[in-house]
Amino acid sequence: MEKESFDFLKKLMDTMSPSGFEEEAMRVWKDRTKKFADEVNTDILGNSIADLNKAGKPKIMFAGHLDEIGFMVKYIDKEGYIYFSTIGGIDLHLVPGKRVWIKTKKGKVLGVVGKKPVHLLAEEERKKVAKIEELWIDIGAKNERESRSVLNIGDPIVPAVGFEVLNNDIVVARGFDDKAGAFVVSETLKILSQKQPKASFYGVATVQEEIGLRGARTSAYRISPDIGIAIDVTFATDFPSMDKRKVGDIKIGGGPVIARGPNINSKIFDLFVEVAKKEKIPYQVEGISRATGTDANVIQLTKTGVATGLVSIPNRYMHTQVEIVSLKDLENTANLLSAFVLRLDRETNLMLH
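Given the sequence above, the corresponding structure tokens read:
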């Protein structure tokens, strides 16, 4: 991966962007992406929309969501301990003992998630997952007044970890779901800006996917694309305990994952496979027999319907603070997507009948 791309990825991953609080990540995405776009706009929800060759046909929209899962300050007790709620799908097994950052108006505040020590737990308590109301955040404050002097109710929270290289092209961070997809959208625009696509291209960093696919719904309505492609992460299954009979066979480093199923226009699936073979880009196929639970779901149902696809990046340990992806997969996904766009022109017909 080029140094400029790597530095952008690291900077993006180190931002805090829980659903509804994506501003920091959005600034990083916009500052980089505007170098390759004709124009970048932001809508009322916070989606950033970069366009290239507006006059082209067909009109294609790529969407990668910038929001990550996290927590929110809910209540501060008299002793200054902070109780919190979840933003998005949190695995409560993994919450106790975490260091966290609380994003406040005065800056980032470090805290730790407290829990009764194992020595003091009754036998039955040791077998149970702690309820969220039984956990708290300790920022070292003496009392409620001291806590309230640095933070407020509603402040967002994320695990206090950032981007690291684990081994060669394998990297780890919290929030690859789906800042990896938003990164790929920007990378694709970078590649296309050096070509001459015949299609009209809109690259969108969407918001609030983790709490209901909200940003994709409004941005797709605004753009009204002919073709909509969601770029997200999917479950890698190349580690112990994963049942491939249920989830499929998806490998880190195996290339972008092309989805197939009722949420996907079959001609778009076929074209992605054709392009991957022609360009000698490694790829994997994922069968999804229902709505995908990604931005593709709402894009497909925009207005009178949109020809929709889903391309995903393999991700180990999704919705934890140690999500793992491959830099090669990110590069190959951007290469596949850009080659796909370059195949589109005014004669492209994606009607199924």
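The chain is about 25% helix and 25% strand. Try to locate this feature in the token string yourself.
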